[in-house]
């Protein structure tokens, strides 16, 4: 009997899939990034006619899908902007004089650094109004299809017109959203989309970027289809033998007629891109669903995967659920949803469990810019960052302090990285004059539900963070607000806990902690024991830790342990990794807190990479990090800072990263690697050993190693063997007198030799070296090769203090996208082909033109040094990464 039913099911499903097989499935999702025109500012005479307050009545209805009780109705009559010249279709408005570009685009990072602009937001011209326009032909065959515009991110207050008609928009610059263009399009004719952005000043505490900085898509479906982000996939029962996969698919009827549908689901193993691979592993019986016009209903099913391949950090296996929608024997929609099978649990006593095993969170906080590329998202640039972070031992990323680009989550799914997916930086109480507080009342429910709905099928996501250092954390209204936001999250996904990052100690005891499932402290390792005593059942983690600051390759003397590591007029921070703002800690102090209280689930350090903006301590008049040692020196430092003035401080990017803005590793990278990659034989010595002015002077030497003891040698003479004590994470030789030559360390583990490292005094700069991270890339105009240029001596050793002026020349069918060197004080525009090395290193970013068949050659030259060349080849589809 069972065999008969199974055969009947397969036959029924086979009929569903083969009926009208010659007809194409209606769904298409097209990348819509090419062929845009760009212009700053409104046309003359616009005034405030297109301000958010004017557009708000037309914008709020766009969010109705994401609010419990839709109340907003689109007003009758003409919407604002429908008589604006820039919103008009071609040929009524001629935009041929506008700049032609390809998205994603960040107009701020293209600009000149400006000393009159604040360092907190990168000294770049990111604020203001701008328009984007795109004309395109829509085939007549699209008549009757539903066509939507999907914008993954536009900074900020975006508003969209189609053929002169206002369609909608979304104000939060980090939100992804969809608009239905169908009523305004003309199949078989030329159509025009116009998008206006209004990036308000004083809206961010870091560099937010400006522009349509993430991907844009045009999606075509039947009028009846799986709704936007309409699948919710959970795995309520998982074992080695089987996994139950629960799939709910929201089916929307945007037609004018009632519909009787048949819905079926198949599960496949997923390929690297998340698409189905091979034959279906399991299929559901078709379910009948009846929809009225304008109605959306869920279709639910449960399927069993036998002997599932679990998603974990070592083998991030994935599956794809395919939802099939049939009407009158015709397949009208086929929707793919990648997902993973795994279990997660946060515990009060044993931290975080993945698939039942404890996994310490070794995480970093990441802002969304990509260094010299600004905020314009690029998948390869983000992938490079993740690869470097994994080398450091990172297994988790916190998306500080906003929802990320969808592709970052795809990368984390594929590469095995956990994600704390964050909502926002403030609620009702502002941090900046034009921050999210202006939108919270009207948009917070829609913003929360939309980002959770978008991201809930990603196995990498383990926490929904509802905020960061929210001012309400110490206010009476805070607990209720946190509970309400957590409730809204759970409406979309009840399988993951909510969390928050709290900077005020009181937030762990005043009831604010009860608003989330998992509590995060920012910079409070001393509170871990107290929090546990007061909240014995609540899981705890370090949501933001360390904030140690340093400049790659910079070392200031004398070395002290009192957090002072800067120097007036120098605007760099010493790389001994002992210096942090008063509210922060060294890595060592946080490690101690985690080891003292092993119930803590782990940490997210501030930050993995340096980022544009927030150049603490050089973003304010604070002198608490400057290298003075007497009251007289402090008075002199304060006077000099006052003379310079706040806006004269040159720094344009942070010092917080374990990796600099160009992607070069700082010393701190190796301190974290020594702890987080404890099974990797490694040792690292700091500082460099080029100090001609310090002969005979005390020059402390620190060693980071995954071993437990080490012996240091200077020119072959032992300076002693040291062993890590309890709560010691580095080995120090603080009385070394500088003598030119070679420093060598031999590290031991359990008494056996484990790793060695050395640094040598180099000769003068004698040559250039250049290495591409990948010598073959796709010729699609998007893939990138990152070329590291090293200023070396005659023996090929990096000259650690070289500031050599370099010239980059590219020949062949490609483009030099940007250059950088990781120097927070360098005001050279990123697009420049001329840049000084910073402490021996510089970076060039290269891409091939679409369709290029030949290589490009990057030539790097410098006065008095032989030039160096590196080739980047077009990769075939079969060999491209």
Notes on the protein architecture:
This protein is of the alpha+beta class. Helix content is 14%, strand content 34%. It is built from ten helices and 45 strands. An eight-stranded parallel barrel has the order 22-23-24-25-26-27-28-29, surrounded by five helices. A six-stranded antiparallel β-sheet has the order 3-2-4-9-6-7, with helices on one face. A hairpin with a 2-residue loop joins strand 44 (856-862) and strand 45. Helix 3 (379-392) packs across helix 4 (406-415). The radius of gyration is 28 Å and the shape is globular.
The helix/strand class is alpha+beta
Summed over residues and divided by their number, the pLDDT gives a mean of 94
Q: Spatial order of the strands in the main sheet?
A: 22-23-24-25-26-27-28-29
Q: Estimate the helix proportion, in percent.
A: 10-25%
User: What is the global morphology?
Assistant: globular
Percentage beta strand = 25-35%
What is the overall number of helices? 10
Q: What's the gyration radius in Å? A: 28 Å
What is the distance, rounded to the nearest whole angstrom, between the alpha carbons of the first and last residues?
A: 49 Å
Number of strands: 45
Instruction: Give a short account of the largest sheet.
Output: 8 strands, parallel, barrel
Uncertain regions spanning at least 5 consecutive residues: 1-24, 877-881
Oligomerization: single chain
